[in-house]
Amino acid sequence: MSNLSRYAGHVPLNTFQHIFLTVGSGIAAFINPRRHDLIATFGEVSAEPYFVNRLRDQMLADPTGRRILRDRPRITSKSLDLEKLKQLPENSIGRSYLKWLEDEKVSPDTRLPVRFINDPECAYVMQRYRECHDFYHAITGLPVVMEGEVAVKAFEFANTGIPMTGLAALTEPMKLKADQRQRLFDIYIPWAVTNGLRSESLLCVYWEEILERDADEVRQELGIDMPPNMRELRRKEKLKKQQLKQKSEAPTAA
Questions:
Q1: Which of 107, 202, 209, 241 has its CA 20 to 30 A from that of 218?
Q2: Residue positions forming the annotated binding site for Zn(2+)
Q3: 93-107 pLDDT tens trace
Q4: Peptide bond into 49 cis (omega under 30)
């Protein structure tokens, strides 16, 4: 670790480097949204100093948030013990989270470490947001398809104000098909804004301590309404298109 580094993996930046990396990673992430490393980099450099400091202050002002900052828990497959989650009640937070991981074929071990935020405590805040992202998917039931990611990003922006989430919610719909974009603007963006603004700060939720709790009760306490089932709406839309195609291709009677 160099003399300028403040925590393991920290990459200190001067003002020019910070501006250059913000612009460069933002443009690159827009062009190729599948590059999670670019999205992570843009999320960090665009959040510092104002936005991540504000989130840190929100956590310090909340009793649970302060405990999270003090304990600095990490969310990984080992820290959560996924095998134990299988034994929890069906509608518990932990079981809902595990089911979402299995359904979407994702792992909690894929989140990149924070590197470009200078203050160690603020770096942890960003790491915590990053590792809790799958809980936000799980508690809202939104899948990892592009539509679902946009809806979650809009929800996160309304709840946290992190610039990267707002930019993603604004730009990524342009890359969707017309029917998907319409569904987002008609259903999921209004839901995301309403629930994100109304909900308690999700960064102040100690997810590891409420794994056994009923998910519906937690949503009610946080102020989150479940959105319509996106996968089901997508399935119905696909079926409708197939039926219309079959009807148009069917031979007409003489």
A1: 107
A2: 133-134, 137, 149
A3: 999 888 888 887 888
A4: yes
